[in-house]
From TrEMBL:
InterPro entries: DUF485 (IPR007436). It comes from Phragmitibacter flavus. The chain crosses the membrane at residues 32-55, 67-88. Pfam families: DUF485 (PF04341). This is DUF485 domain-containing protein. Keywords: Membrane, Transmembrane, Transmembrane helix. The keyword Transmembrane helix applies.
Length: 107
């Protein structure tokens, strides 16, 4: 079986990486991913920290036997869906930017 010659169809990654639209795409991703990741980690680590350092505060009952710790824990599920929705919305913008970038090099 003859080997395929990929030199004709191989993308020029150096040229793509040097394109300003590629830099804009990377920057757009960084502007979302880094703050979202930091927020995610801080928010999810806050519960054990709060329970560890301020247990009496977290035991405060809010709705019957439901206390602040339970509400905070349940809010983490909600926060997961919110962050997921924000990511999906941002990813749609990145897909458009990506398609425009690739169209410049593969038409």
């Amino acid at each position: 079986m003859p080997e395929k010659n990929n030199t004709e169809t191989a993308p020029d990654w150096d040229r793509i990486a040097a394109d300003p639209d590629f830099a804009a795409l990377k920057s757009a991703k960084r502007r979302f991913i880094i703050p979202a990741t930091i927020f995610f980690l801080v928010y999810y680590m806050a519960l054990p920290v709060l329970v560890g350092f301020w247990p009496e505060l977290m035991k405060t009952e809010v709705l019957g036997k439901v206390n602040i710790a339970y509400l905070f824990a349940l809010s983490q599920f909600l926060m997961t869906w919110i962050i997921c929705a924000m990511y999906v919305k941002a990813a749609k913008r990145w897909d458009i930017m990506n398609e425009a970038l690739l169209a410049k090099f593969f038409r």
